[in-house]
């Protein structure tokens, strides 16, 4: 197969960049990969494990001659990285990113992009609580969605090529407008993370009362929360600071619902609770039936 890109440059060499580099290699999708990271330690690890074909000391060096540049740093760092690489981008290159928020990145990166470059923002809806160059794995994007948020007038051939690259890495691709992406992700990813962080914080406070029983007897539900709450603090700080409006909107709705459930418990309103849990169970089953829950444990699913 002819490679889709000749030279792909990653700025940032953590979980997502590493997984992309490995998935590209698995699919024989690109001729050459090059990457750089801010810390010398990450660069040394990436070179040692052969995550990309070449590791460079600077982002400027990495992007030179690249026909695809992928920004894989925390959302709050995109601005500085874009400014840094802009003068070194090759004519006709595509620049994309993998940030969890889209409108803020477009606002931060867009102004630095030269006219002769195609800027096509993106977001793979796949991840883990692990970070750094050793965290990546080639299968991360298999059967998951990647959302691209191109602006009006995007070059159709550049969009098609990037779409085929993500498909080659195992993902299904959808196009969305950036504010809609940010609202959808506030519901499906950002607010759930905040709730998990909060629940684990509450349990930690309670630990003083219950000694270590919270950890010792932590059931599956709480364990899932602790996995999510172990995610990278810098990444998630930036997500909430840059997707502020959508997250606050969803949190407002969440607290209203929580108060309604709290009232039902206080009043002994079993009917309300039962009806609510029946509705949410149907949502879970819908996700499974749509084949969107490929990595969750079975938990007796087949018997339901
Ligand atoms: N982890 C996930 O589940 C997940 C999923 C989808 C998208 N994303 C997004 O992908 C991006 C990267 O996330 P990741 O999980 O690969 O992170 P990571 O922590 O594994 O890697 C981040 C990389 O960025 C570099 N970096 C950090 N701060 C920097 C700065 N100020 N300037 C330059 N480089 C810097 C780090 O050295 C590292 O190489 C983030 O924007 C995140 O929102 C993450
Ligand atoms: O499974 C996880 O660890 C994740 O939280 C991954 C997850 C998500 O919420 O689904 C987290 C942030 C992303 O931007 C995309 C994916």
Automatic annotation (TrEMBL):
<protein>
    <submittedName>
        <fullName>Prephenate/arogenate dehydrogenase family protein</fullName>
    </submittedName>
</protein>
<dbReference type="InterPro" id="IPR003099">
    <property type="entry name" value="Prephen_DH"/>
</dbReference>
<dbReference type="InterPro" id="IPR008927">
    <property type="entry name" value="6-PGluconate_DH-like_C_sf"/>
</dbReference>
<dbReference type="Pfam" id="PF02153">
    <property type="entry name" value="PDH_N"/>
</dbReference>
<feature type="domain" description="Prephenate/arogenate dehydrogenase">
    <location>
        <begin position="6"/>
        <end position="295"/>
    </location>
</feature>
<dbReference type="InterPro" id="IPR050812">
    <property type="entry name" value="Preph/Arog_dehydrog"/>
</dbReference>
<dbReference type="Pfam" id="PF20463">
    <property type="entry name" value="PDH_C"/>
</dbReference>
<dbReference type="InterPro" id="IPR036291">
    <property type="entry name" value="NAD(P)-bd_dom_sf"/>
</dbReference>
<keyword id="KW-0560">Oxidoreductase</keyword>
<dbReference type="InterPro" id="IPR046826">
    <property type="entry name" value="PDH_N"/>
</dbReference>
<dbReference type="InterPro" id="IPR046825">
    <property type="entry name" value="PDH_C"/>
</dbReference>
């Amino acid at each position: 197969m002819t490679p889709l890109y000749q030279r792909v440059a990653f700025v940032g060499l953590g979980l997502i960049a590493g997984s992309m580099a490995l998935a590209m290699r698995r699919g024989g999708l690109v001729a050459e990969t090059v990457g750089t990271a801010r810390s010398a330690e990450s660069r040394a690890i990436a070179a040692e494990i052969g995550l990309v074909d070449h590791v460079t000391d600077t982002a400027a060096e990495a992007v030179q001659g690249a026909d695809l540049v992928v920004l894989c740093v925390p959302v709050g760092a995109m601005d500085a990285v874009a400014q840094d690489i802009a003068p070194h981008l090759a004519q006709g290159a595509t620049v994309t990113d993998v940030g969890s928020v889209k409108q803020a990145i477009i606002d931060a990166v867009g102004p630095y992009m030269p006219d002769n470059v195609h800027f096509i923002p993106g977001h793979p809806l796949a991840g883990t609580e692990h970070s750094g160059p050793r965290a990546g794995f080639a299968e991360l994007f298999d059967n998951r969605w990647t959302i691209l948020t191109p602006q009006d007038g995007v070059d159709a051939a550049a969009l098609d090529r990037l779409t085929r690259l993500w498909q080659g890495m195992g993902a299904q691709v959808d196009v969305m407008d950036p504010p809609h992406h940010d609202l959808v992700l506030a519901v499906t990813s950002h607010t759930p993370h905040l709730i998990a962080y909060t629940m684990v914080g509450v349990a930690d406070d309670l630990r003083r009362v219950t000694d270590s029983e919270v950890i010792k007897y932590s059931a599956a539900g709480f364990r899932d929360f602790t996995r999510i709450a172990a995610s990278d603090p810098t990444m998630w700080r930036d997500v909430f600071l840059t997707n502020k409006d959508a997250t606050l909107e969803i949190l407002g709705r969440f607290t209203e619902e929580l108060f309604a459930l709290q009232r039902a418990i206080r009043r002994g309103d079993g009917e309300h609770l039962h009806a609510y849990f029946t509705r949410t169970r149907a949502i879970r089953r819908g996700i499974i039936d749509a084949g969107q829950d490929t990595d969750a444990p079975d938990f007796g699913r087949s018997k339901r």
